[in-house]
Design a protein that fits this description.
The protein is mainly β. The chain has two helices and 21 strands.
Length: 255
Protein backbone atom coordinates (compact mmCIF):
# COMPACT_ATOMS: atom_id res chain seq x y z
CA UNK A 1 0.00 0.00 0.00
CA UNK A 2 1.58 3.27 -1.09
CA UNK A 3 1.29 6.45 0.89
CA UNK A 4 0.44 9.33 -1.42
CA UNK A 5 0.59 12.10 1.13
CA UNK A 6 1.33 12.55 4.77
CA UNK A 7 0.81 16.22 5.40
CA UNK A 8 1.64 18.18 8.51
CA UNK A 9 1.02 21.88 8.13
CA UNK A 10 0.06 24.83 10.27
CA UNK A 11 1.33 23.28 13.46
CA UNK A 12 0.34 26.18 15.66
CA UNK A 13 -1.13 24.90 18.94
CA UNK A 14 -4.46 26.43 19.92
CA UNK A 15 -5.74 26.38 23.46
CA UNK A 16 -9.37 25.33 23.85
CA UNK A 17 -11.60 25.40 26.88
CA UNK A 18 -11.97 21.87 28.19
CA UNK A 19 -9.25 19.55 29.47
CA UNK A 20 -10.00 16.87 26.88
CA UNK A 21 -9.39 19.25 23.95
CA UNK A 22 -7.06 21.80 25.52
CA UNK A 23 -4.57 21.59 22.64
CA UNK A 24 -5.15 21.63 18.87
CA UNK A 25 -3.28 21.59 15.58
CA UNK A 26 -4.39 21.76 11.96
CA UNK A 27 -3.38 19.24 9.31
CA UNK A 28 -3.87 19.40 5.52
CA UNK A 29 -3.56 16.66 2.90
CA UNK A 30 -4.04 16.46 -0.88
CA UNK A 31 -4.04 13.61 -3.39
CA UNK A 32 -4.73 13.12 -7.08
CA UNK A 33 -7.81 11.03 -7.91
CA UNK A 34 -6.65 10.09 -11.41
CA UNK A 35 -7.62 6.43 -11.95
CA UNK A 36 -9.48 6.29 -8.61
CA UNK A 37 -12.92 4.63 -8.58
CA UNK A 38 -13.63 4.68 -4.83
CA UNK A 39 -12.65 6.84 -1.88
CA UNK A 40 -12.62 5.61 1.71
CA UNK A 41 -12.97 8.20 4.47
CA UNK A 42 -12.26 7.05 8.03
CA UNK A 43 -12.81 9.22 11.08
CA UNK A 44 -12.87 7.78 14.57
CA UNK A 45 -13.97 10.71 16.71
CA UNK A 46 -14.92 14.25 15.75
CA UNK A 47 -17.15 16.02 13.25
CA UNK A 48 -17.00 14.99 9.60
CA UNK A 49 -17.91 17.17 6.59
CA UNK A 50 -17.66 15.80 3.04
CA UNK A 51 -18.45 17.88 -0.05
CA UNK A 52 -18.46 16.71 -3.65
CA UNK A 53 -17.14 19.09 -6.31
CA UNK A 54 -18.12 18.62 -9.94
CA UNK A 55 -15.16 18.34 -12.29
CA UNK A 56 -12.57 17.99 -9.52
CA UNK A 57 -9.56 15.75 -10.16
CA UNK A 58 -8.13 15.61 -6.66
CA UNK A 59 -9.00 15.14 -3.01
CA UNK A 60 -8.28 17.76 -0.39
CA UNK A 61 -8.69 17.30 3.35
CA UNK A 62 -8.26 19.36 6.48
CA UNK A 63 -8.30 18.06 10.05
CA UNK A 64 -8.40 20.10 13.22
CA UNK A 65 -6.93 17.72 15.79
CA UNK A 66 -7.73 18.28 19.46
CA UNK A 67 -6.32 16.46 22.46
CA UNK A 68 -5.42 16.67 26.12
CA UNK A 69 -1.70 17.27 25.60
CA UNK A 70 0.64 18.88 23.11
CA UNK A 71 2.45 15.57 22.56
CA UNK A 72 -0.78 13.86 21.56
CA UNK A 73 -1.90 16.40 18.99
CA UNK A 74 1.60 16.67 17.54
CA UNK A 75 1.67 12.91 16.98
CA UNK A 76 -1.53 12.80 14.89
CA UNK A 77 -1.06 12.79 11.11
CA UNK A 78 -3.54 13.22 8.26
CA UNK A 79 -2.78 10.49 5.75
CA UNK A 80 -3.89 9.63 2.22
CA UNK A 81 -3.09 6.13 0.92
CA UNK A 82 -3.69 4.57 -2.47
CA UNK A 83 -4.33 0.86 -2.90
CA UNK A 84 -5.01 0.04 -6.53
CA UNK A 85 -7.94 2.15 -7.64
CA UNK A 86 -9.03 3.00 -4.08
CA UNK A 87 -7.93 6.05 -2.12
CA UNK A 88 -8.15 6.29 1.69
CA UNK A 89 -7.99 9.41 3.82
CA UNK A 90 -7.76 9.15 7.61
CA UNK A 91 -6.38 10.82 10.69
CA UNK A 92 -3.82 8.51 12.28
CA UNK A 93 -2.64 8.87 15.87
CA UNK A 94 -1.92 7.12 19.16
CA UNK A 95 -4.31 4.82 20.93
CA UNK A 96 -6.04 6.30 23.95
CA UNK A 97 -3.75 5.91 26.93
CA UNK A 98 -0.51 7.11 25.33
CA UNK A 99 1.27 10.15 26.73
CA UNK A 100 -0.32 9.95 30.15
CA UNK A 101 -3.75 8.54 29.38
CA UNK A 102 -5.33 11.30 27.27
CA UNK A 103 -7.30 11.02 24.06
CA UNK A 104 -7.74 12.96 20.83
CA UNK A 105 -10.32 13.72 18.17
CA UNK A 106 -10.24 15.18 14.67
CA UNK A 107 -12.80 17.43 12.99
CA UNK A 108 -12.29 16.31 9.39
CA UNK A 109 -13.35 18.26 6.28
CA UNK A 110 -12.91 16.55 2.90
CA UNK A 111 -13.57 17.76 -0.63
CA UNK A 112 -13.86 15.00 -3.25
CA UNK A 113 -14.84 14.67 -6.92
CA UNK A 114 -18.63 14.45 -7.05
CA UNK A 115 -18.70 11.37 -9.30
CA UNK A 116 -16.55 8.94 -7.27
CA UNK A 117 -18.06 6.28 -5.01
CA UNK A 118 -17.56 6.87 -1.28
CA UNK A 119 -17.12 4.41 1.58
CA UNK A 120 -17.38 6.38 4.83
CA UNK A 121 -16.70 5.13 8.36
CA UNK A 122 -17.46 7.64 11.12
CA UNK A 123 -17.15 6.74 14.78
CA UNK A 124 -18.71 9.61 16.71
CA UNK A 125 -19.27 13.33 16.42
CA UNK A 126 -21.79 13.61 13.60
CA UNK A 127 -21.41 13.86 9.82
CA UNK A 128 -22.65 16.09 7.01
CA UNK A 129 -22.27 15.10 3.33
CA UNK A 130 -23.34 17.09 0.28
CA UNK A 131 -23.36 16.50 -3.48
CA UNK A 132 -21.45 13.21 -3.45
CA UNK A 133 -21.39 10.07 -5.56
CA UNK A 134 -22.77 6.63 -4.68
CA UNK A 135 -22.39 6.16 -0.95
CA UNK A 136 -21.87 3.48 1.67
CA UNK A 137 -21.71 4.90 5.19
CA UNK A 138 -21.41 3.45 8.69
CA UNK A 139 -21.73 5.81 11.64
CA UNK A 140 -21.43 4.93 15.33
CA UNK A 141 -23.07 7.91 17.02
CA UNK A 142 -24.02 11.45 16.16
CA UNK A 143 -26.43 12.77 13.59
CA UNK A 144 -26.00 12.04 9.87
CA UNK A 145 -27.13 14.66 7.33
CA UNK A 146 -26.85 13.85 3.62
CA UNK A 147 -28.08 16.16 0.84
CA UNK A 148 -27.38 15.19 -2.74
CA UNK A 149 -26.25 11.70 -3.78
CA UNK A 150 -25.75 10.66 -7.41
CA UNK A 151 -26.21 6.90 -7.12
CA UNK A 152 -27.38 4.52 -4.43
CA UNK A 153 -27.01 5.32 -0.72
CA UNK A 154 -26.51 2.62 1.93
CA UNK A 155 -26.40 4.18 5.41
CA UNK A 156 -26.28 2.58 8.85
CA UNK A 157 -26.24 4.65 12.04
CA UNK A 158 -25.94 3.31 15.57
CA UNK A 159 -27.41 6.28 17.43
CA UNK A 160 -28.37 9.75 16.35
CA UNK A 161 -30.81 10.89 13.70
CA UNK A 162 -30.36 10.34 9.96
CA UNK A 163 -31.51 12.73 7.24
CA UNK A 164 -31.20 11.92 3.53
CA UNK A 165 -32.42 14.25 0.82
CA UNK A 166 -32.14 14.38 -2.97
CA UNK A 167 -30.85 10.90 -3.77
CA UNK A 168 -30.72 9.86 -7.43
CA UNK A 169 -30.83 6.13 -6.76
CA UNK A 170 -32.04 3.67 -4.15
CA UNK A 171 -31.73 4.17 -0.40
CA UNK A 172 -31.02 1.47 2.19
CA UNK A 173 -31.05 2.81 5.73
CA UNK A 174 -31.08 1.60 9.33
CA UNK A 175 -30.66 3.28 12.70
CA UNK A 176 -30.51 2.14 16.30
CA UNK A 177 -32.09 5.28 17.72
CA UNK A 178 -32.91 8.77 16.55
CA UNK A 179 -35.34 10.06 13.98
CA UNK A 180 -35.17 9.33 10.23
CA UNK A 181 -36.08 11.76 7.46
CA UNK A 182 -35.88 10.76 3.79
CA UNK A 183 -37.13 12.88 0.89
CA UNK A 184 -36.54 13.38 -2.80
CA UNK A 185 -35.49 9.85 -3.87
CA UNK A 186 -35.69 8.79 -7.52
CA UNK A 187 -35.42 5.08 -6.65
CA UNK A 188 -36.89 3.01 -3.81
CA UNK A 189 -36.36 3.31 -0.05
CA UNK A 190 -35.68 0.35 2.24
CA UNK A 191 -35.57 1.28 5.93
CA UNK A 192 -34.30 -1.98 7.38
CA UNK A 193 -34.85 -0.99 11.01
CA UNK A 194 -35.66 2.08 13.07
CA UNK A 195 -35.44 2.01 16.83
CA UNK A 196 -37.09 4.62 18.98
CA UNK A 197 -37.16 7.58 16.60
CA UNK A 198 -39.89 8.56 14.18
CA UNK A 199 -39.60 7.90 10.43
CA UNK A 200 -40.71 10.49 7.86
CA UNK A 201 -40.47 9.58 4.17
CA UNK A 202 -41.74 11.69 1.27
CA UNK A 203 -41.34 12.23 -2.46
CA UNK A 204 -40.14 8.75 -3.41
CA UNK A 205 -40.43 7.66 -7.04
CA UNK A 206 -40.29 3.95 -6.21
CA UNK A 207 -41.55 1.87 -3.28
CA UNK A 208 -41.08 2.26 0.46
CA UNK A 209 -40.29 -0.74 2.65
CA UNK A 210 -39.95 -0.56 6.43
CA UNK A 211 -38.58 -3.68 8.10
CA UNK A 212 -39.26 -2.79 11.72
CA UNK A 213 -39.97 0.21 13.85
CA UNK A 214 -40.10 0.25 17.65
CA UNK A 215 -41.80 3.01 19.60
CA UNK A 216 -41.53 5.66 16.88
CA UNK A 217 -44.13 6.43 14.23
CA UNK A 218 -44.00 6.28 10.43
CA UNK A 219 -45.30 9.10 8.24
CA UNK A 220 -45.20 8.57 4.48
CA UNK A 221 -46.30 10.89 1.68
CA UNK A 222 -46.01 10.86 -2.11
CA UNK A 223 -44.80 7.29 -2.58
CA UNK A 224 -44.74 6.25 -6.25
CA UNK A 225 -44.82 2.49 -5.62
CA UNK A 226 -45.86 0.18 -2.78
CA UNK A 227 -45.75 0.84 0.95
CA UNK A 228 -44.85 -2.22 3.01
CA UNK A 229 -44.27 -2.44 6.77
CA UNK A 230 -43.12 -5.80 8.13
CA UNK A 231 -43.34 -5.14 11.86
CA UNK A 232 -44.21 -2.22 14.08
CA UNK A 233 -44.20 -1.73 17.82
CA UNK A 234 -46.21 0.85 19.70
CA UNK A 235 -45.87 3.65 17.16
CA UNK A 236 -48.47 4.63 14.57
CA UNK A 237 -48.33 4.48 10.77
CA UNK A 238 -49.87 7.22 8.65
CA UNK A 239 -49.65 7.66 4.88
CA UNK A 240 -50.99 9.80 2.03
CA UNK A 241 -50.61 9.72 -1.75
CA UNK A 242 -49.34 6.14 -2.06
CA UNK A 243 -49.81 4.96 -5.66
CA UNK A 244 -49.13 1.28 -5.14
CA UNK A 245 -50.26 -1.45 -2.77
CA UNK A 246 -50.25 -0.78 1.00
CA UNK A 247 -49.44 -3.53 3.50
CA UNK A 248 -49.30 -2.28 7.09
CA UNK A 249 -49.63 -4.84 9.90
CA UNK A 250 -51.42 -4.45 13.15
CA UNK A 251 -49.18 -4.06 16.17
CA UNK A 252 -47.02 -7.07 16.92
CA UNK A 253 -47.12 -8.91 13.57
CA UNK A 254 -43.69 -10.21 12.66
CA UNK A 255 -42.16 -11.04 9.32
Amino acid sequence: MGVLALATVQLSPMRAGAQEDAYAVKRDAHASTSGITSIRIQNGSGRLVVTGKAGASSLSATAVVRGSSQDIVNSVKLITERDGNALTVRADGPDRGWFGGGGWSADLTVEVPANIRLDVSDGSGGARLQNVGALTMRSGSGGVHIDGVTGNADVKSGSGGAELRNVRGDVVLSTGSGGITVSGVTGSVDVRSAGSGGVNVSQVTGSLHLGSIGSGSLTADNIGGDLTVDHKGSGSVSYTNVKGHVDVPSRGRRW
